[in-house]
Specification:
The protein has eleven helices and four strands; from the N terminus they run E-H-E-H-E-H-E-H-H-H-H-H-H-H-H. The two termini are 28 Å apart. The radius of gyration is 20 Å and the shape is elongated. The longest helix has 17 residues. It has 292 residues and is mostly helical. The protein has two domains: 172 residues, no CATH class; 72 residues, no CATH class. GO terms for molecular function: DNA binding; zinc ion binding. One of its GO terms (biological process) is DNA-templated transcription. It comes from Friedmanniomyces endolithicus.
Length: 292
Amino acid sequence: MQQKRYRVSRRRLIDDEPANQSPSSVRHGSIGPTNAGTERLRPSLPSPQASRDETLNSFYQHGIGARHWEVFHETDPIRVVYVGDSTANLHHLVQSEQPANRLHFPWPPIKPTLPWKPDTQHTAAAGYLTSAVAQDLVSFPARTVRDALVQTYFDDIHPCYPVIDEEEFRRQYRDSRNPPPLILFHAVLLAAARISDHPMVASSRPTVTATLFRRAKSIFELRHENDRVYLVQAALLIAWHVEDSDTISSNSYHWVGQATRIALGLGMHRDLTGRSTTLMPGFDRRHYRRLW
């Protein structure tokens, strides 16, 4: 392994820079980024406030017989419905309308797009979110440490544990207007902090990992992330953190179990390369297979 050289700073490692500016470009006292705290809009058919019946009707009218994957969303990641096997009610209803061997369909939006920064108005468990906690969740280590941790992750963890797409993550990391999902970014830093040889990390590793774990776990439990694929990825990375075997929420068994159950709900365990037909793009199919 190539030896890394770092210039040690007197500054504390966890100096809680408010990363409202993007994880890669945050500075002390910054307020940005321009869009990080706003909603990334996507077409809504129906609106997020639509009733369950309207959502189902929209799915039956447009989703089952869809000829292209982006029937409901033109830009952002698609919400996917897995119809299950022949014992599932939804599978039976879908087959009665469209007798094809499909397992996944595009689904109308049922939840509003959340802002990047958690707040008491949009977070599902808002009653547990104070302003101090919200600020803590968007605080990161110093810029040089963040950069080193991201590089460590892709150099030493990603080659044998490729749960995220490197090109997409690096692009988001450089883009202040479209930063990485908050929970996924904390999880990447946490996994890298377990093995990083950066002096500012190695000298206070228990404190660093405990802080990063607290933030990633809090975002997960606040249900601030709607994209279930990100939840699978984050849970698999949070599993790198082990405090003690007696603390159920702080061991690998718990977090791998969380990832597995969410993945099963998405149908990641089903074979999409054989006899099944699907509109799901090849990239997403490969991503499902790699995660499973």
